[in-house]
Amino acid sequence: MTNALAENKKAIDFAAIRQDFPILHQEVHGQPLVYLDNAASTQKPNLVIDSIKHYYEHDHSNVHRGAHALSDRATAKFEHARENVQRFINAAKREEIIWTRGTTESINLVANSFGRASLTSGDEILVSAMEHHSNIVPWQMVCEQTGATLKVIPVNECGEIEFDQYVAMLNEKVKLISIGHVSNALGSINPVKQMIAEARKFDIKIMVDGAQAAPHFDIDVQNLDCDFYAFSGHKVFGPTGIGILYGKEQLLESMTPYQGGGEMIEVVSFDGTTYNELPYKFEAGTPNIAGAIGLSAAIDYLAQFDRNALQAYEDQLLAFATEQAKSVEELKLVGTAKEKTGVMSFLLQGAHPNDVGMLLDQQGVAVRTGHHCAMPIMKQFGIPGTIRASFAFYNNEDDVVRLFNALNKAKSFLL
Ligand code: 7TS
User: Fold this and answer.
1) Does the beta carbon of 212 lie inside 6 Å of ligand 1?
2) Which of 63, 105, 141, 237 is the most exposed place for a label (fewest CB within 10 A)?
3) Does the reported pTM lie above 0.70?
4) Given the CA of residue 181, which atom of ligand 1 is nearest to it?
5) What DSSP letter does each residue of 286-333 carry, written as one string?
6) Of 79, 85, 174, nearest in space to 127 by CA
7) Ligand 1 pocket, 343 CB below 6 A?
8) Active site includes 373?
9) For residue range 85-108, what is the model confidence (pLDDT) as tens digits?
10) What is the pLDDT of residues 164-191, one digit of tens each?
11) What is the residue with the minimal CA distance to atom 16 of ligand 1?
12) What sign has the CA pseudo-torsion 240, 292, 83, 104?
């Protein structure tokens, strides 16, 4: 064990943390599970599982409309969850927190509500070359609808934003930039704060896709000064089907909703309808109440720990894995940015990633293989995909050792 890893372990009991996650304690194909697919979705602590069970056993009803105790209780928990998210990302107001199904829906909301209304032919939207498809396709769709043009911020061979080229792309035509905080395919941490500071020199709105950042470090939307921020509950140890769109109040006020229905209205008549106030005007229909409560419990779970210490531990684990990678001659790392977190993407030269993934699975090691919904960056690197091991704070050195033992065995079959 590295010294740094041992020291950090004294402060937080990482073995006890593992006990909080029941799913980790099982065998897969006759081997103890090693779960290294955290970038796809993280596992849930008992606190989250119990909060959802408790809600359905005691408090469930529809929110904001009941004239009875259960509905009042459900509403109180649902709105408390919103305030918990507000604190989690340090938003100035609860009205700035919109519930969505996840990052994908949050980006689509901005593309449809903000993009469609404010973009026109000749305007430009910027995304980087390493974005997840959900931060590419909604912008392509809005460009088709408005005549705006999507431009791509270049990324170097290590997986880092070409900052000077980014700055050179900024001008009055650029109306919106949408940038991943952390790349899911490569693990690169993008310099979003500096990018936002540059964008502020022009009247450009900035959206940050925080799907892979919120699981690893504290987010402070006021400090970043972003206009929009999105993340998914299921990647921060909460449930699936729930996510967040943060938006600056003034901007959200100026936008019209793109989904109509119950909850988002004030008065409906056939002569015309008026919309509800923030945040409800963007929340048409019955929301995912249990999901919001579960996400709030995940935030409470994380609040027990010094998140800097959790991140330091994860970084040491990633460094340990990256060091081990040097011992496998055929292993080629994909994504070697100086600032990285949570992800080791690699190839085993001479073997297809899918075959490697299958052989790892047979040994109880769960990774993801393929293009990771980031086909453009794979194309730039001239590869069909990678093998991706992605870490959370409940992983440990044994998991890394098991990964490399399994890899060496896979190698003996395939090469
Ligand atoms: N943005 C990034 C950077 C992501 O990593 C993902 C999901 C999304 C957006 C979409 O999130 P969703 O919760 O709305 O689906 N990334 C992955 C992944 O890397 N493997 O599976 C899903």
Assistant:
1) yes
2) 141
3) yes
4) 3
5) S--HHHHHHHHHHHHHHHTS-HHHHHHHHHHHHHHHHHHHTT-TTEEE
6) 174
7) no
8) yes
9) 999 999 999 999 999 999 999 999
10) 999 999 999 999 999 999 999 999 999 9
11) 40
12) positive
- Domains of the chain, each with CATH number or no CATH: 3-32+306-414 (3.90.1150.10), 49-303 (3.40.640.10)
Question: Can you tell me the distance from the alpha carbon of 177 to that of 259, in angstroms, rounded to the nearest whole number?
Answer: 23
In whole angstroms, give the CA distance from residue 34 to residue 410: 16
The alpha carbon dihedral of 367, 373, 377, 382 has a sign of positive
Q: Answer yes or no: is the C-beta of 180 below 6 A from any ligand 1 atom.
A: yes
Pocket test for ligand 1, best of 189, 235, 391 (most atoms within 8 A of CB): 235
Locate 342 and state its tokens: 């949570």
Dihedral sign, CA of 254, 259, 261, 262? negative
Among residues 143, 158, 226, 373, which one is catalytic?
Answer: 373
Name the residue at shortest CA distance from atom 21 of ligand 1.
40
Tokens of 202: 């022009």
Tell me the torsion sign for CA atoms 244, 311, 188, 36. Answer: negative
- The sign of the CA dihedral 82, 84, 86, 89 is negative
Give whole-number Cα distances, 270 to 38, 203, 273, 274, in Å.
48, 38, 7, 11
What is the enclosing helix (H) or strand (E) of 206? Answer: strand 205-209
3-state DSSP: the chain helix, strand, coil percent, rounded to 5? 45, 20, 35
**Which residue in 284, 288, 292, 282 sits closest to 110, CA to CA?**
282
Q: What span, in angstroms and rounded, lies between the C-alpha atoms of 272 and 265?
A: 11
Check if the beta carbon of residue 149 is closer than 8 Å to that of residue 123: yes
Give the Å distance between the CA of 132 and the centre of ligand 1: 7
Q: Which of 366, 371, 370, 353 lies closest to 395 in space, CA to CA?
A: 366
pLDDT one-digit tens code per residue, 112-156: 999 999 999 999 999 999 999 999 999 999 999 999 999 999 999
Strands 124-128 and 149-153, bridge-based pairing:
parallel
Q: Which amino acid type is present at position 166?
A: Y
| CA-derived radius of gyration, the chain | 22
